[in-house]
Design goal:
The complex is a heterodimer of chains A (about 190) and B (about 160).
Chain A: H1 3-13, E1 18-21, H2 23-32, E2 38-40, H3 49-59, E3 65-70, H4 71-76, H5 79-87, E4 92-98, E5 101-102, E6 108-109, H6 119-125, E7 130-134, H7 137-148, E8 154-159, H8 175-188
Helix pairs in contact in A: 1-2, 1-7
Chain B: H1 4-14, E1 18-21, H2 31-35, E2 41-44, H3 48-60, E3 65-70, H4 71-76, H5 78-87, E4 93-98, H6 109-121, E5 124-128, H7 134-147, E6 151-156
Helix pairs in contact in B: 1-7, 3-5
The chains are: A alpha/beta (about 190), B alpha/beta (about 160).
Amino acid sequence: MTLGDALQVLADRRRDQVVVTTMSAARQWMRTSDHPLDLHFVPSTMGGGLSLALGIAIARPQRDVIVLSGDGCLLMNLGSLVTAAVSNRPNFTVIVIDNGVYETTGGQKLVTTGSPVDLADMARATSFANVTEFDSLAAWKDGAETALQQPGPHCIILKVAPNYDDYALNPPGPMSERLDAFRAALASR
Amino acid sequence: MILGHQIEKIIAGFGATHVVWVPDSTLGAWEEALEASASFELLRVCREGEAWPLAAGLYLGGKSPLVMMQTTGLFESGDALRNALFDLRIPLFALIGYRSYLLKDSPDTARKFAEPILDAWGLSYELINGPEDLPKLVAHHRACRIAGKPGVGLIAEGRG
């Protein structure tokens, strides 16, 4: 499945969750969604999206929070997967965009590319309450509604094809203005 | 030596809701008091690079986090700090354990680079040598909050 198709499935089923995006997912989500509870974490510290989103989830326990993280980002801050699992927040879902490459820098291989390392197994080992994998668009379409209703901490792995042609990532405007708007939306709902 | 109940009272006075930390041997002695606090929640992370974005998320969610780590963790988490404090412009306050500061003539490179690194980041910091300096910490935190700027309390470490 392509990243665009995968995120359209999420957008079609998204209700009022906070959605935090970084890197490739942010680039695509900007094209797919325009919602006051979207937080495009751009510019970011690579691998920090999961931690940022977890902080929002802890601060706002009545609000469901989804973070879209690339596999490269997750590997760069793998301890955050443990922190999220052990924090045991039922309102927290991490969706890993597993494309096997560093897409935003042009598609270089990850240390895990071609290896037997399995991110879903890692998530299970760290005690995520639910772990779900989808390796085709059809399966994701069929299972997304149910998966998104699973209590957290939930880890969803989406196997997507890398995109080598359209990887440039630009901030969608001044961060301070976007954060002010996001905080206002978060406080008002 | 600053005791756990003393720093807990100070942090509670800051109005902190969460302390995000990776302890060292000095800060770690405060664990019991911090964990027992009725004023804030102690959050553990695996590595310091998680602490800054996690605290930033808490702040965006309307909370008042405080970050706590050793100077070595400060070095390790530089990019996360850069992003949270300067890209996102979130005025986080941190207590940083100043490893080996009290060991005069220490060859510890963590001691050598601590203040130059803080200066390079342009972070305002106050050195806290012991309990007698806690009023300075309170004043520095207040000044940073009023200015809407990040800040650091450097906790002197290394006395035997």
